[in-house]
Amino acid sequence: xxxxxxxxxxxxxxxxxxxxxxxxxxxxxxxxxxxxxxxxxxxxxxxxxxxxxxxxxxxxxxxxxxxxxxxxxxxxxxxxxxxxxxxxxxxxxxxxxxxxxxxxxxxxxxxxxxxxxxxxxxxxxxxxxxxxxxxxxxxxxxxxxxxxxxxxxxxxxxxxxxxxxxxxxxxxxxxxxxxxxxxxxxxxxxxxxxxxxxxxxxxxxxxxxxxxxxxxxxxxxx
Length: 222
Known about the structure:
This protein is α/β, with parallel strands linked by helices. The chain has two domains: 3-118, Rossmann fold, CATH 3.40.50; 124-219, Winged helix-like DNA-binding domain superfamily/Winged helix DNA-binding domain (Arc Repressor Mutant, subunit A, Orthogonal Bundle). Helix content is 41%, strand content 21%. It has eight helices and eleven strands. The longest helix has 15 residues, at 104-118. It is elongated and about 60 Å long. The termini are close together.
């Protein structure tokens, strides 16, 4: 699963964009300024950076130069109509740019396009006998299609984006509450986890993919 570093100092944009990217199967780290971004580049080894040109601390261009010196692709987020910033960013080696406000799915399409050029995107994610194609939104088990509802698929992507980490029920509710426009409470979360296990587990009564961690929550192994 590809890791993205989002460098943005607007908390609202950061929260909404991070949640959307995670729902699309990406792992997301965030930084609010140039110094923190440089540190996270070294600590987390992201596959791609999304960088706001205007930062409260440092410069988006500085982040771009640092990332490019390490061979990492960069997509700039720019203010609408800021042509000079776009030109400068591309001249510095940025791979693409998208003007705010942007359509999230268009951004995801551009991210995947850049990752394909670098040969980094892993659209097929194996999970036991299950394979998730995050580009096509397709799930198969032993070569046969598994048909998931929008919320079940969103729930599966949440687990994939946090592989190796225990997710509490409250964390899961925060991630999926608005998927497909459905209201999800603690009781319905139990139902959706049960349904998802019935569709992807070899033995739903003894789940090996989505494991229960007693007293803590659920986890999918890394």
